[in-house]
Amino acid sequence: QVQLVESGGGLVQPGGSLNLSCIASGSVSPLNDMAWYRQPPGKERELVARIVWGDAAKYTDSVKGRFTMSRDNKKNTMQLQMNSLKPEDSAVYYCNLVQGLAIKTTYWGQGTQVTVSS
C-alpha cells in the first residue's frame, strides 16, 4: 500500500502563487508515474500535470507557463508550483501515483483546497 499526503493549499488572490506538496510513503516503487489532478466545484476531475518516470513534466494547456511540477525520487515527493493563479484554478487538488509493471495500481491523496479569489 502507498499513502499520499498533500499540503500547501489555501486562499490566494488572483495573480498570486501557491506551492503544493505531496509525500508518498509505504510500498513506493522507484519506477512510478506521479501526477496532479484537480476537481473544480461541480465538474469532473482533470489532469493538471504529470511526470512519467524518466521523462519531463507535461501540462494541460490551461496551466502551461504558470505551473511547474517537480518530483524528488529519493524522497518520494512531488510538488506543484502554481504562479499567476486565476479564479478558474480554484479546485480541490489531488496528487496521484501509479506504479506496477504488469498490473498498474493507482493511489490518490486526500485532496487540498485551492481557492483563488479577491
The N- and C-terminal alpha carbons lie at a distance of 40 Å
Q: Helix proportion of residues, in percent?
A: under 10%
The sequence of SSEs as H and E is: EEEEEEEEEEE
| Shape estimate | globular
What is the rounded Rg?
14 Å
What is the beta-strand fraction? over 45%
Helix count equals 0
Major sheet = 7 strands, mixed
Quote the average pLDDT.
95
* Number of β-strand runs: 11
Query: Spans of 5+ residues with little confidence (pLDDT < 50)?
Result: none
Structural class: mainly beta
Observed structural traits:
118 residues; 7-stranded mixed beta sheet; mainly beta; 4-stranded antiparallel beta sheet
Outline:
This protein has no helices and eleven strands. With 118 residues, the protein is mainly β.
What does this protein look like?
This protein is mostly beta strands. It is 0% helix and 55% strand. The strands form two sheets. Strands 2, 4, 5, 6, 9, 10 and 11 form a seven-stranded mixed beta sheet that branches. A four-stranded antiparallel beta sheet has the order 1-3-8-7, with no helix packed on it.
Architecture blueprint of SSEs:
Elements: E1 2-7, E2 10-12, E3 18-26, E4 32-39, E5 46-51, E6 57-59, E7 67-72, E8 77-82, E9 91-99, E10 105-108, E11 112-116
Parallel strand pairs: 2-11
Antiparallel strand pairs: 1-3, 3-8, 4-5, 4-9, 5-6, 7-8, 9-10, 9-11
